């Protein structure tokens, strides 16, 4: 979420106004104090002190004021004393007097405002802010705003109260104050209040940018309909590419994929392609494989290093080759082609060679984690192309040496070496992990026992993970594999399905649903397998293993 611009300058411009407001209100409030006081002696004492002040004898005046405090009663007399302390610039004595007066009259708003101002002036913001709740709804809300601004300047965003800025807005309407209230509320995940403040901004400053910011708050708070209502009116002529992208996100979350596709298509047709998201999303949501391929190729032509697009392109690879008849195959080998063959090539799924070329191009443009992810996509594709371990492993070790801190790379390496039954290497890699693995001890020991064929002992360890949020879903997946190995297929499906329910994210859940569908397919329960695969793809449309198996099963059916 965007943090709004600096507020310091606005606060300090505001401070003199508040100080003047306070002094004027205080002076007016006590100007008649001598005439109205029933204590003539007190009035005479004040006149004597005034004469010392006028003659420049501040020290004598201060001593007399401190003595007079013992006889003060009522807020008017206390305010008279404090006013004179301020005249001779004895702010310390003024604060002491205000504290003593408040101890006797704790509910007095005038004295509360005065003490809050004095505390703020002395930099004691933590003490001053305690008066904020009392003053924010009083006639001294300007003093409350001053305290709030000073507190905000001295506090981190997470420690701020949006009401400090709303009080400033009440005193001096400025969208700067409201924007800070929006930012602080959103940071505290109070999206309802943040959206309310953002809508107030639109009343006086209904710009595209302000609508976009309000829509982002609404989207973060899951107020999807409000997001759509805010952006629909400005979508057609919006200057920022963020407007249609946020609007399309809202449509997707609302389940209105057709409307989201209309937005992406309009961006593509208008060549509004500063960012690859419109092309990628249009391809991702396209059910037709041929059109998806063409859109991805357009995206990669314009943005060749965009990882999501190149990954989806690589995962759309078809390993069965072109559907040429024997004669066409001979012609193709000889370098000849026909119109029918050209059409078949255009309509063909992504070939492994095309996928590898796109990955190689993307790798030359990427750095850091993006580069690692692209290289892992390439290794994954090579593995599917049945490239030998002797070819893949040196490249994987090279990556591990270059990027020893990458958790993504570590996770892939653990998976790869476990998959090819090199458990010693996998366990050696695992010991290098920096995270605390005490919660995973039972899980790792279970995997180790599985690797040496002690399935029953491993199952006991996996069952001991029940109730552990971090490991239970993985333990259930391993129990599913053990049940499958024992040919207890119904139990294996149940364990994978339960693991999918406990998985921490939709991607992991989708993978486990695929495992359940794979077993169902193997036992000839194709209809149920197709249903489970469909759900797996709803959770993660990029689960290419589920997509490939679904295509195979539907072709047979």
Walk me through what this model shows.
With 557 residues, the protein is mainly alpha-helical. Helices cover 73% and strands 0% of the residues. It has helices spanning 8-30, 33-36, 40-54, 58-68, 74-87, 91-104, 109-121, 125-128, 132-135, 141-154, 162-171, 175-187, 191-204, 208-220, 224-235, 242-253, 257-269, 277-284, 289-302, 307-315, 326-333, 339-347, 352-365, 368-384, 389-402, 407-419, 423-430, 441-451, 455-463, 472-485, 489-502, 506-522, 526-539, 544-556. The relative contact order is 0.03.
Q: How would you sum up this structure in a few lines?
A:
This protein is 73% helix and 0% strand. It is mainly α.
Please specify the SSE layout and strand pairing.
Layout: H1 8-30, H2 33-36, H3 40-54, H4 58-68, H5 74-87, H6 91-104, H7 109-121, H8 125-128, H9 132-135, H10 141-154, H11 162-171, H12 175-187, H13 191-204, H14 208-220, H15 224-235, H16 242-253, H17 257-269, H18 277-284, H19 289-302, H20 307-315, H21 326-333, H22 339-347, H23 352-365, H24 368-384, H25 389-402, H26 407-419, H27 423-430, H28 441-451, H29 455-463, H30 472-485, H31 489-502, H32 506-522, H33 526-539, H34 544-556
Rounded to an integer in angstroms, the radius of gyration calculated over CA atoms is: 36 Å
Head-to-tail CA distance between termini: 48 Å
Query: What's the tally of helices?
Result: 34
SSE class? mainly alpha
Strand share of the residues? under 5%
Strand element count: 0
Average pLDDT number: 77
| Anisotropy-based shape | elongated
Question: What fraction, in percent, of the residue positions are helical?
Answer: over 70%
The unreliable regions are 1-38
Biggest sheet descriptor: none
């Amino acid at each position: 979420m965007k943090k709004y611009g600096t507020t310091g300058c606005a606060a300090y411009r505001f401070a003199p106004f508040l100080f003047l407001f306070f002094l004027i209100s205080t002076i007016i409030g006590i100007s008649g104090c001598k005439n109205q006081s029933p204590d003539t002696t007190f009035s005479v004492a004040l006149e004597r002190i005034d004469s010392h002040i006028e003659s420049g004898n501040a020290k004598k005046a201060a001593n007399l004021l401190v003595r007079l405090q013992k006889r003060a009663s009522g807020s008017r007399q206390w305010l008279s004393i404090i006013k004179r302390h301020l005249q001779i610039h004895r702010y310390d004595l003024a604060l002491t007097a205000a504290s003593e007066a408040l101890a006797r009259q704790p509910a007095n708003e005038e004295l509360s405002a005065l003490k809050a101002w004095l505390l703020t002036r002395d930099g004691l913001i933590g003490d001053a802010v305690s008066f904020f709740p009392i003053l924010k709804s009083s006639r001294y809300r300007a003093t409350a705003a001053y305290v709030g601004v000073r507190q905000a300047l001295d506090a981190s965003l997470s420690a701020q109260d949006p009401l400090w800025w709303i009080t400033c807005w009440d005193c001096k309407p400025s969208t700067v104050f409201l924007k800070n209230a929006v930012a602080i509320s959103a940071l505290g995940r109070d999206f309802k209040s943040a959206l309310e403040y953002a809508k107030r901004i639109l009343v006086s400053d209904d710009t595209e940018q302000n609508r976009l910011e309000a829509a982002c708050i609404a989207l973060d708070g899951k107020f999807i309909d409000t997001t759509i209502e805010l952006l629909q009116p400005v979508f057609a002529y919006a200057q920022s590419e963020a407007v249609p992208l946020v609007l399309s996100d809202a449509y997707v979350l609302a389940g209105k994929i057709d409307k989201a596709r209309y937005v992406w298509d309009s961006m593509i047709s208008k060549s509004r392609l500063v960012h690859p998201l419109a092309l990628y999303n249009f391809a991702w949501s396209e059910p037709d494989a041929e059109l998806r391929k063409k859109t991805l190729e357009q995206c990669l032509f314009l943005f060749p290093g965009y990882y999501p697009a190149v990954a989806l392109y690589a995962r759309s690879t078809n390993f069965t080759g072109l559907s040429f008849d024997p004669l066409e195959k001979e012609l193709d080998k000889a370098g000849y082609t026909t119109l029918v063959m050209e059409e078949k090539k255009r309509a063909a799924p992504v070939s492994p060679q095309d996928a590898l070329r796109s990955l190689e191009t993307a790798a030359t443009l990427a750095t850091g984690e993006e580069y690692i992810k692209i290289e892992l996509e390439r290794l994954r594709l090579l593995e599917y192309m049945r490239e030998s371990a002797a070819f893949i492993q040196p490249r994987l070790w090279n990556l591990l040496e270059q990027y020893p801190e990458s958790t993504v790379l570590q996770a892939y390496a653990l998976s790869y070496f476990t998959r090819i039954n090199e458990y010693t290497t996998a366990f050696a890699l695992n010991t290098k992990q920096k995270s605390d693995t005490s919660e995973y001890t039972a899980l790792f020991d279970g995997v180790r026992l599985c690797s040496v064929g002690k399935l029953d002992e491993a199952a006991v360890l996996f069952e001991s993970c029940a109730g552990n949020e971090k490991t239970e879903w993985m333990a259930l997946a391993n129990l599913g594999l053990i049940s499958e190995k024992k040919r207890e297929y119904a139990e294996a499906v149940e364990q994978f399905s339960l693991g999918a329910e406990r998985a921490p994210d939709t991607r992991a859940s989708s993978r486990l649903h695929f495992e359940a569908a794979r077993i169902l397919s193997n036992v000839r329960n194709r209809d149920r397998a197709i249903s489970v695969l469909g759900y797996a793809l709803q959770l993660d449309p990029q689960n290419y293993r589920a997509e490939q198996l679904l295509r195979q099963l539907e072709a047979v059916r």
